[in-house]
Amino acid sequence: MRLRALAHARTGDKGDISSISVIAYDPGDFAYLAEHVTAARVAAHFAGTVHGAVERYELPGLGALNFVLHAALGGGVTRSLALDAHGKSLSSSLLEMELPDPQAPAAAAP
Question: Most buried of 6, 8, 14, 35, CB within 10 angstroms?
């Protein structure tokens, strides 16, 4: 199952830092997302694109996770010739992350 089945996402940027909020469609899915969408998995998902640390902040009252990706925008909007200098496509990419089927045994988790 892809992350997009359970959540939507928004991005923001400041310099060379991108922020991606992952928001559960159903607040009841927040615990599952918090367990499986870790900073380590997000860093692995963006290996080769994000060259700095990935921090995760939990907002359980909103059913959301916020990820701060350092060294993610090729130097930043004013320093990069990248087509997506603001990193808006990063949220779509993150929503492609594969998650284990919630109905499958724990041993099947990636």
Answer: 6
Q: Which residue has the higher pLDDT, 63 or 87?
A: 63
Q: Which strands sit side by side in the sheet containing 17-24, from one edge to the other?
A: 7-14, 17-24, 64-69, 54-59
- The single-letter DSSP state of residue 98 is B
Q: Which two tokens stand for residue 27?
A: 């607040």
User: Structural domain boundaries of the chain?
Assistant: 3-100
How many angstroms separate the CA atoms of 90 and 71, rounded?
13
pLDDT band at 76 (very low <50, low <70, confident <90, very high): low
3-state SS assignment for residue 39? helix
**Mean residue pLDDT across the chain:** 84
Cβ-based neighbour number of residue 35 at 10 Å: 11
